[in-house]
Design a protein that fits this description.
InterPro entries: A-crystallin/Hsp20_dom (IPR002068), HSP20-like_chaperone (IPR008978), Small_HSP (IPR031107). It holds the Pfam family HSP20. It comes from Ambispora leptoticha. This protein has no helices and 5 strands. The chain is mainly β. It has one domain: Immunoglobulin-like. The strands form 2 sheets. It has a 3-stranded antiparallel beta sheet with strand order 1-2-3, with no helix packed on it. Strands 4-5 form a two-stranded antiparallel ribbon. A hairpin with a 2-residue loop joins β1 and β2. It is elongated, with a radius of gyration of 20 Å. The relative contact order is 0.26.
């Protein structure tokens, strides 16, 4: 995981677990190769305290809220 400003970038590679060169494959449902996904983190979250865990094929990302964050109000003239 990488954080670039307010964007969380998840990248990695799908691994091919077996040698398929000996098989005559007609259709393959699972992907292999690299992937990248960017997700915008809304303001009001602590990007310095991100916690990530990968378990049983599931990636869980926790981003705590910044309880001190107050949106700025702008008066219209």
């Amino acid at each position: 995981l990488d954080v670039h400003g307010q964007e969380l970038v998840i990248s990695g590679e799908y691994a091919q677990h077996q040698d398929l060169s000996k098989h005559n494959i007609i259709r393959k449902e699972r992907k292999a190769g690299k992937f990248r996904r960017g997700i915008t983190i809304p303001h009001g979250f602590k990007t310095d305290d991100i916690d990530a865990q990968y378990k049983d094929g599931v990636l869980t990302v926790k981003i705590p809220r910044n309880l001190e964050f107050k949106p700025k109000r702008v008066n219209i003239k």
